[in-house]
Records
---
Amino acid sequence: MILNIIFVAIGGSIGALFRFIIDRAITDRVKHHIPFGTLGVNLIGLFIIGFSFSLFKHHVVPPQFKLFLITGFLGALTTFSSYALNTFRLFEEKHYRHGINNILLNNFLGMGIAFLGAKIGNFF
Amino acid sequence: MLHYIFIGLGGAIGASSRYLIDFYMSSHTSINFPIGTLMANLVGCFIIGIAFRVFHHDIIHTKFNPFIITGFLGALTTFSSYAYATLILIEKGHYFLAGTNLLLNNIFGILFAYLGARFTNYMVKKHLFHKFKGDE
C-alpha cells in the first residue's frame, strides 16, 4: 500500500509540473476568454490515457507502472478543479457562450480524443 | 525553482489523496460507477472555489497559490480518469450511467466551485476570515 502511494505520488508530482509548464506555454501564446491552457493539458492527457489502455490490453505491464502513469501522472496532468472554476468564472462574468463552449470542448472533444487515442493504441 | 518544488509537492499530495479516496470508495461500495473520481473532483471543486476567493481577498499570501491550486487541487481532481471511465461506460452500453457520470461531474463540479466562492465571501462578510495585509 505504501509503495503504491509512492508510485502515485511520484507520477502526481511530475504530472502537476508538466501541467504547469504546458498550461503556461499555451496561455502565453493564446489569449482568449476560454482557458485553452487547461483545455490543452486535458486533451493531451486524454489522448495518452486512451492510447495507454489500448496498449495495456496487448502488452503486460506491472500494476505499479499503471499506478504511476494513469493514477499519478495522467491524473495530475489533467485537472477538473481549474476547469470547473474557470467555467464558473466565465458564467459569473456573463460570458455564457464561452462557458458553454468550454464545457463542450473539454467533455466531448476530450472523449473523442481519448477514443482516437484508444484506436491508434490498438495498432501497437 | 521553489515554485516548481511547491507544485511538485502539492501534486504528490493531491494525487495520493485521490488514490486513497478512490481506494476507500471502491472497497466500500460495489457499484459499477466511478464514484471515487467523482468524490475527489467534487471535493477539489469546492476547495478551489474557497481558495480562489481566499487568494483574491488576500487572506492567504499568493505565494501559496502554486502549492494549493496548481499542485494539490490540480492533482486531486482529474479529467482523464473521469472522461475515460465515461467512455468505457458508453462502450459497454451503460448509457444511463455514462450520462449520469457526465452530468454529476460537470453540474456539481461547477456548482461546488461556485458554492466554495460564496462560502469565502460569506466568511469575509461576517469577518470570520481576516486579511493578512494590514494586520501585521
---
Amino acid sequence: MAGEIVSIVGESGSGKTVLGLSLLGLLGSSAQISGSVIVDGVDMIAADTGMTRRVRRRALGAVFQDPMTSLNPTMRVGRQVAESAGTEREALRLLGAVGIRDPARRLRAYPHELSGGLRQRVMIAIALAGNPKLIVADEPTTALDVTVQAQVLDLFRRIREDVGCAIVLITHDLGVASSVADRICVLYAGRVVELGGSRAVLADPAHPYSASLLTSRITLTADRRVELPTIRGEPPDPRSEEDSCSFAPRCPFAEPVCVERRPLLTQVSWRAGASACHFEAGPRTIGTAVTPTWPPQLKPRGAAILEDVVVRFPASRALFGGTGAFEALSGVTLRVGAGESVALVGESGSGKTTLLRTLAGFVQPTSGRVDTGGSMPQMVFQDAGASLTPWLRVGELLEDRVRALPRAERRERLVHVLRRLGLPEEVLGARPSQLSGGQRQRVALARAVIDPPDLLLCDEPISALDASLAASVLNLLGRLRRELGFAMIFVTHDLAAARLVSDRIVVMTEGRIVEEGPTERVVTAPAHDYTRILLESVPEFVA
Amino acid sequence: MIDAVGAAPARKYHLRLAAARRLPGAEQFGLVLMAVLVGLALLAPLIASDPTVAVAGSFAPPSASHPLGTDDIGQDVFARVLYGMRTSLAAAAIVIAFGVVVGGAIGLVAGARGGIVDALLMRLTDAALALPGPVMAIAIVAALGPSLRNTVVAVALVWWPWYARLVRGEVRALAARPHVDAARLSGVSRRRLLLRHLLPGAVPPVIVAASLDVQILVLTLAGLSFLGLGSPPPAPELGAMAARGVDYLFGYPLVPLAPGIAVFLIAVAANLAGDGVRDLFDAQP
C-alpha cells in the first residue's frame, strides 16, 4: 500500500531476500518460479526483462545490505546518483533529502571516501530517484553501527512521510522491524506464517514462531538471572515439500495434527491479521516459558591486566603525503579479575577489537603493559565459520589444542567437550562447510574450551546471528564461564547483549575508555553522554 | 543473507567427480580428449613400433600396419607421433612439477613469513621472471648442446616464478583470514600452521593454473624443438618432426601435419580441460 512500511522478518534461509529480489524482478533465470508478483500493475515474474526494467525504473528503488558493494567504486557518487536522477541538480537535491550535510562537496566523493552510514544514505538517494512507488530495502542497517542504524531508520520513517512511497524493509531483527514498520510479515522456511499490524503482531503474536522470536530477543529488559529462552533445533531446509507445518519440529505446542497437515494462512479470530497455525490460543502462553537459572560459578580463575596501553599503527604510505600514524588505543588501563566477565562496548573504530587482539597477542602494544597471566587466551571470532579452517575436519581442529596430550587422553577430551556443548560425535569427521550455522558456533566454542582457558576473548560473536541462535550462544557462554570459571571479555556494539553476559561494562570510543562500572548501573544510570547515545540507539521496542 | 557478513567468498576445496557432469559440453569434451591423449601417450610402447628404426621404405602410404605411413627415412609416423606426444606431455609435466614444488615452496614461505623474507624471495622471483624464456633456452642449449633435457631445464628455470607469485598471493590472502589467527591461538606449531592451515588453501588455484599451463608448455616446448633446440634427430619430438617434414608438405602432407595436428589436439584438449578443472573448483553459484 502506498505510504506504508511493511517489514519482512525471518531468520537466514527463511526466503526473505528471495522475496525482495522477486519484488524487484531480479531473480535469476536459474530459479523456478510459480505464482505472480504484481508491482505497479505488472507481474514481475511473467513479464519480459524489458518490461520489468521499465517498472524498476518507473516505480521501484532498492537498498541492499552492503552499500560498498552496491555502489560503483570507480565513479563519484554524484554521477551515480545523477544516473538515476537524471540531472546533477536533482542528485544534489536528493543527497540533501537523505540528510547528507554539505551535499555539494559529497557529490564529488568516491564511495570509499564515505563512511558506511553516508554510503547507505547515498544508496537511499539513488533508490529515491524518480519518485518510486516502492522501495525494497534488504537488511539496510545490518552492516551499520547502532547509532548510524538509528539515524538510517529515522530516515526511512521521514521518507515515508515526505515522499509517500511504500517501503518493504527486510530484516532479521524484530527490534528494527518494530521501530519503523506499520505491518509485519513473518517468514519461516519460505512461507508466510504471520501477517498483521506491527503493534498487534508484537504485542499479541498469533503464531508460535513469532512468539518464540519475540521471547528469544535480546533486550535491555531480559532477566539476567536465568538463561535466555531459545527456539530449540534449527530452521529446516525450505525446499522440503512435506505436507506438515514446517515449524512443528521446533514448536513447543506441536500436536499430531501439526505433522499431518500444513496449516494455511487464515484470519486470526480475536484481532486483525492472519496466521498459519492450527491453533489459536496457544502462543499467548509462551511468554511464561521457564528457563533454567545459571549454574553456580566454580573456581574462578584467570585475569588480565592492561596498563596504559597505546597501540599505534604506522600510516599507510599514501602517494601524496601520509597523514601520520593512526592511534587505535590511546592509553587504556583495564583490569579483569578472576572469573569476571567484562563487556567492552563501542562502535567500529573505537579500538575495542584492537584491544582484544592486543590481549590475544596478535598486536604488539606500542607502549604499556599487557599481562594475561602466562597462559594463551582463547578467542571466539565474529564469524565462527570463518575461524574454522575450511579444509580440515572438526576432529583435527579440536585436536590442535590438545596435541601435547597422549593420544588416548586427546580422544577422551574430544568426546567430553562435544558432550558439554551438545554436539553429536559425528561432527568430528565433518568439515565446517557440512555443519549448520549453529553447529559451527558450537564447534568454535568447543575448540576454545576443550582445554579450559584462563581468559576467553569474544569478538562480536553474536552480531551476525539470528535472534534465536544469538540467544543460545549467549546461554552457552554464560554456562561455560560459570562451570569452567574462566574470565571473559566480550566485545560488542550491542548494550543489550553486553548487559546479559557481563558483570561489568566498559564503554570505549576513539581508543579510550569513557565509562566503566557494574553492568546494571551503566545500563540504568549511564554517566557518560556517549553511553547515553548508545542506549538510545538500541532499536525501541514498541509493543 | 545475514550469514554473509564478513564471510570470504565460498570456494570448494574438494573436487567431486560427479560435478563434472554438469560442466559445459566443450569442457567435458576437453577432459575426455585429454584423458584419451594421455592414455595413448602412456600406452605408446604397447600400441606402436619403435619410432627410431626404419620399418618400411621412404614415404610409404598409410596402411594397416603403419596407419599414418612412413617418413623420409622410413620411420613409422604414427609411432613417432605417439612417442612425440609422450615426450611433450612428460616434459610439460616436469616443468610444472618443478614450478609447483620450487615456486610453491618459495611462495609459501614468502607469503607466510612476510617482512624481509618476503621481500627478498619476491625480488629473486622478479629477477627470474625478467629472464626471457626462449632466449634463456637458446643460451643454455648453446652452452650445453642441444638436448631435450637442456631445453626442459631452461624452460623450468623461467617457469617457477609464476607459481611462486600465485602461491604467495593466495597464502597472504589466507593468512589474513580468521582461521589462521584461530589456529595460532590453538598453539599449533609453525610447521603445522604452514602445511595444514595455509598450504591446502593454495592448492586449488595451483591445480587450476597448472592445468591451464599444460597447453602453453606443450606449445612452447614444441616451438623450441621446431627451432632445433630439442634433441637431435632420430629422437621423436613433435616440433622437430614438423620442422623436418615441412620440406615434404606438398608431396607427403601427413609427414609434417601429423605432429602439428597432435600438438594442436593436445593444446585444445588441455585448454578445455583446464577450463573444466577451473570450473570444478569454482564456487557453485
